[in-house]
Design goal:
The protein is built from twelve helices and no strands. By secondary structure, the protein is mostly helical.
Length: 334
């Protein structure tokens, strides 16, 4: 080790040293921080659903699966870093370069799967909140559209270059790689805009206080921040494909990829934050039992809806009663 990187006796050398020819440490830090926040949000969601405001739903199971895939994708990034990701191309041998490209190929597949599961969990959460038949049909169609996007994106990623070794992109035999990602990212942005529009459509027919409607819009509107990560990721992908030193210039792509994944999964848990904060409120030593209130309201709304299905025969009356139940559910969720 050079004097510049001298390690005093009794101390361990740094895990990664960032230099002009080795930027792997940046990718490792971004990946580790992103995964840590995702796991923390999953713990909060699990606590809310099992202790405060249940029951556990399909949207929660989807988030758990997406988080597991996120851990696998993070491990693939660490594998890439150990095989030359972030280093100048002249520092990477041919064997390591091949292993790097194999891990990157698998990582891209998990990237699409995680985004798909994240989007699907949002739709399933709204399906969980709504009782209106028109709202549910709309959500089902949107879920089908998102599924179609994910399948098409995976085919575009996997069927590239030489089909015998589709992960090899460094031999100059691949074409239109950036175009593929531009199409995938365009529809990624489009689906995020649709996911933002869904709650607006949901609350438009509800008789709710304006402030509550604004809070719902803000909670789901935070997902729009993902659009920044999508745009910057696509920008750096373009730079990477034009670069003669792709193993080094891929680092910003990895960083914004991890930011997009983490933001996508973290924003799924934001609707659970209010019940969590209410339950954590000690009222400065008071004896109020806030934690039971959201569950009590949700249970009352569910019982009222079941009673309405037995007693109300008019379709219009059932729809009106169902919308009232949605107001209760949204009040609890946000």
């Amino acid at each position: 080790m050079s004097p510049l990187h001298f390690v005093p006796p009794g101390q361990y050398p740094p895990f990664a040293i960032i230099t002009s020819t080795d930027q792997a440490g940046k990718a490792i830090i971004a990946t580790a921080i992103g995964l840590s926040f995702v796991l923390f949000c999953l713990l909060i969601r699990t606590y809310v659903r099992t202790v405060i405001n249940g029951p556990w739903g399909r949207d929660d199971s989807i988030v758990v699966l997406a988080t597991g895939f996120c851990a696998i994708q993070s491990a693939l990034v660490f594998s890439q870093a150990s095989n030359g990701l972030g280093k100048s191309l002249e520092l990477v041998n041919s064997t390591s370069l091949l292993e790097l490209q194999e891990a990157a190929y698998a990582s891209n597949i998990f990237f699409i799967l995680i985004l798909y599961l994240s989007k699907a969990s949002v739709v399933l959460l709204i399906l969980r909140l709504t009782r209106d038949a028109r709202h549910r049909r709309t959500c089902t169609k949107i879920l089908a559209g998102i599924t179609l996007w994910a399948v098409a994106a995976i085919f575009m990623i996997t069927l590239q270059c030489d089909l015998n070794n589709p992960w090899i992109t460094s031999d100059g035999q691949c074409s239109n790689l950036f175009l593929r990602w531009m199409i995938i990212s365009t529809f990624d942005i489009f689906t995020e805009l649709i996911l933002f529009a869904m709650p607006l459509y949901l609350i438009s027919a509800l008789q709710m206080p304006v402030l509550l409607k604004v809070s719902v819009v803000l909670v789901y509107g935070l997902r729009l921040l993902i659009l920044i990560a999508i745009g910057l990721r696509l920008y750096y992908i373009h730079i990477m494909y034009d670069s003669l030193n792709a193993t080094l210039d891929v680092v910003p792509v990895v960083i914004w990829t991890q930011i997009e994944l983490a933001a996508s999964l973290m924003t799924n848990t934001i609707p659970c934050f209010r019940p969590f904060m209410v339950a954590a409120n000690t009222s400065w030593g008071g004896v109020e039992t806030f934690a039971a209130e959201p569950k009590r309201i949700a249970g009352a709304a569910q019982r009222s809806l079941q009673l309405s299905n037995k007693m109300i025969s008019s379709p219009k009356a059932k729809r009106a009663f169902g919308l009232a139940a949605e107001e209760h559910q949204l009040a609890v969720a946000t």
